[in-house]
Amino acid sequence: MLTKVLVANRGAIARRIIRACQALNIASVAVYSEADRDAPYLAEATEALPLRGNSAAESYLDHQQLLAAAVASGADSVHPGYGFLAENAGFAAAVIAQGMTFIGPDPHWIDQMGDKVNGRRMLAEAGMPVFAGSELIDDLAAAEAFVAKVGLPVVVKPSGGGGGIGMHVVRRPEELSGAINAAVETAQRAFASAGVFLERWIEKPRHIEFQILADLHGNAMHLYERDCSVQRRHQKLIEESPAPGFERGQLEQQAQQFSDICQGLGYNNLGTVETLFAPDGGLGFLEMNTRIQVEHGVTEEVTGIDLVATQITLAAGGQLPRQTPLQGFAMEVRLYAEDSQTLFPSTGTLTVFRPPELHGVRIETGYREGQVVTPYYDPLLAKIIARGTTREQAIGRLVVALRAFTVRGVSTNAQLLLNILQDDLFVQGQVDTGMVARILAQQNVH
Amino acid sequence: MARVEVESEITGNVWKVQVSAGTEVAEGDVLIILESMKMEIPVESPVAGSVQEVLVQPEDQVEEDQLLLVIEA
Q1: Is this structure's pTM higher than 0.90?
Q2: Do A257 and A173 reside in the same domain of the chain?
Q3: pLDDT band at A63 (very low <50, low <70, confident <90, very high)
Q4: Domain containing residue A349: CATH number
Q5: pLDDT for residue A165 is more than 90
Q6: Cβ separation of B41 and A345 shorter than 8 Å?
Q7: What is the pLDDT of residues A23-38, one digit of tens each?
């Protein structure tokens, strides 16, 4: 078993990893940028080491500083969390080259799935259903040829990216060239790789992802699905499990098929298969995330399995947990430091920050009262996860929790979240990726 | 002629400046792209007119309500 984990991350996920280490009775080492010197996760770790710099590039993305901290602390393993270096194959390989364990899949899988065109091709060959997609686009002619073949609309995506960054939907032929240029520019800046590709764009699909676990001995399993259709700017706002309105047999068969594909390939540790369900029932693979997801807590609440602790034990050569039946319903909302109407990010000092303690509600946050929300990192203030014996009960608990959660000093999206949770179609389980735009438009009329 | 001041609605960094003094702009044109909390925030022109002065450059840090540029409408 591992004895000391360096946590190469910050905020809510750093705290979550430290908690998993405590549950396994192993030591944890936190690192922190200058901007994070007052963050609560530092005191919770066994020890904490400073990083130079404030911006992500200077601190949590600096391989050398992180590796030096790991070596200096005597850690035998590194957990990357999500974001930052979680899907950086070079960093994972560097950790392993230092003789430490990287808590995640083999760098080979990070590399293969990190290139979205390659990941698509590999999984399609293994039997995964996919929507029409192009190879890497070298010039406008190649893009036009793809459009001539599959028709409009299409979406331009960076191949090296993820998180919805740099995606451009093209609905009219004359928009194609501009969308490709914009995607290339963002891809270069955000992912240091200019490659982009095209996919058929599905209007108002459901975004459903499947949780996969795999050990180092050739076995894989699934832990059902999460519905993440409620998004803004192609980024998730609300996630739930089970996905509402599906016949369980069909969905679980799908989950098993994806788990079998991962087992066949020899994938290891933990991963998520992201898919889109078109309104006509067609299903297509989007990408595989080779890391723990922000919304992992939803699956933990309906299975009782600690996914972060499981990642650590699997990385150490441990066995898969036993498959459990789904236990009720769970739903998560992401409380962001951003305006409910304009969605502009909001920075400032949290003069009041009081997460409520409520039955059936779990709150994951990296912040505490008095701390400063800076422009350097993402706007996530807290994840609020509610359980229920019914979906309605989980929704009701989230509404209560959001109303009881007092935040002053920055704007939050709490009102937008409340409007979604109380939307008739949402309550009926009729969710799709276009619903936030519709609710925002209604909000702004009133 | 009216002098229209365009201010930042957020705290963050200047990523791109799309215009310079003398650029003719229409209402809704993107003048500057800011970055904060991993998001790109376009600053659009509130009016049609001519850019008189640009007060920031790429990589600058900006505060909420800071003056970014001036348009002669």
Answers
A1: yes
A2: no
A3: very high
A4: 3.30.470.20
A5: no
A6: yes
A7: 999 999 999 999 999 9
Which residues in chain A have Cβ-Cβ distances shorter than 8 Å to B11?
347-348, 375
The answer for A269, left when phi > 0, alpha when psi is -120 to 50, beta otherwise, is: left
Amino acid at A159: S
Regarding whether A325 and A193 lie in a shared domain, the answer is: no
CA A273/CA A264 separation, integer angstroms: 15
* Residue B65 Rama label (left phi>0; alpha psi -120 to 50; beta): left
Query: B10 lies in which domain range?
Result: 3-72
Among candidate residues A88, A103, A118, the one where a domain is terminated: A103
Domain of B24: which CATH number?
2.40.50.100
Distance CA A416, CA A436 (A): 9
* A114 assigned to some structural domain: no
Query: Which among A186, A233, A375 has CB closest to B12?
Result: A375
User: What total of structural domains would you count in chain B?
Assistant: 1
Q: State how many domains chain A has.
A: 3
The domain in which residue A172 lies consists of 132-200
What chain A residue is nearest to B38 in terms of C-alpha separation? Answer: A378
C-alpha separations of B47 from A92, B16, B34 in Å: 50, 20, 19
Same domain? For A233 and A185 the reply is no
Is residue A170 a contact partner of residue A125, using CB atoms and an 8 Å limit? no
Q: Is the pLDDT of residue A412 over 70?
A: yes
Task: For chain A, say whether B38 makes contact (Cβ under 8 Å).
Answer: yes
A268 touches B: beta carbon within 8 Å: no
Which pLDDT band holds residue A209 (cuts at 50, 70, 90)? very high
What totals of helices (H) and strands (E) does chain B contain, helices first? 0, 8
Task: Give the domain-ending residue among A200, A225, A247.
Answer: A200
**A446 pLDDT more than 70:** no
Tell me which residues of A are annotated as active site.
291
Our separate counts of H helices and E strands in chain A read 15, 20
Q: Is A378 on the interface with B (CB under 8 A)?
A: yes
CB burial class (10 A; 0-12, 13-18, 19+) of residue A216?
middle
**Dihedral angle of Cα A438, A443, A446, B5, to the nearest 10 degrees:** -110
Residues A288 and A396 grouped into a single domain: yes
- Residues A160-165 have a mean pLDDT of 78
Residue A166 lies in a domain: yes
Q: Are residues A212 and A249 in the same domain?
A: yes
